[in-house]
Every structure is written in C-alpha cells, then in structure tokens.
Amino acid sequence: MGKREPEIGRIFHALGDPMRRAIVERLRERPHSVSALAGPLKITLTAVGQHLKVLEEAGLVRTEKLGRVRTVRLDAEGFAVLEAWAAEHKGEWARRLDRLGDLLGGE
Hints:
This protein is an alpha+beta fold. It contains 5 helices and 3 strands. It has helices at 8-15, 18-29, 34-41, 45-57, 76-105; strands spanning 32-33, 61-66, 69-74.
C-alpha cells in the first residue's frame, strides 16, 4: 500500500492546534525523540503521541522507531502541498486585487 498524498483539509486541521504548531517549530531545528518533544512542552508522552498521529496523517511529520526510541522529523511532502495550495490562492487573489485596482484607478 503506497503513501497517499496529504489532503489540504488535514494539513490545516493539524496546524490549527497551537500545541501541534509548537511541535512543528521544535522539529524545524532537528529530529527529536518523542520524549524530547514532551519535556519542554510540558505534556505527557501520550498527548505528544496523539498530536504526532494527527501531524503524521496530514503528511507533516514522519516517525521512525529504532530500538526503544521513536524519532520524529518533518516530512517535506505535506509542506509542499501546503505551499502549492497557498501559491495557487495567492495568484488568484493577486489577480483580483489587480482588477480591483484597475477599476478604482479608472484604467
């Protein structure tokens, strides 16, 4: 079974939670173990695991278990989907604003 492409709705849902955004910010530095993520965030390992599940389903993080340590890293795939969505919508809004400027400017 292949890896499926992240859906934009899942990505926004995942990033809509402040704790999950904090996890993503920590992972920008480097990969972390689950316990290393839990400590500074002052939440339980179970809570981190639940947040990671949502982030992983959105395609924003990957986890890998080596021995007893579960390591988490950012996954570029989800962020590429988010970036493409934002670029597409930015272009549309730029065109609309240009048309509005033309109307207001009398051109």
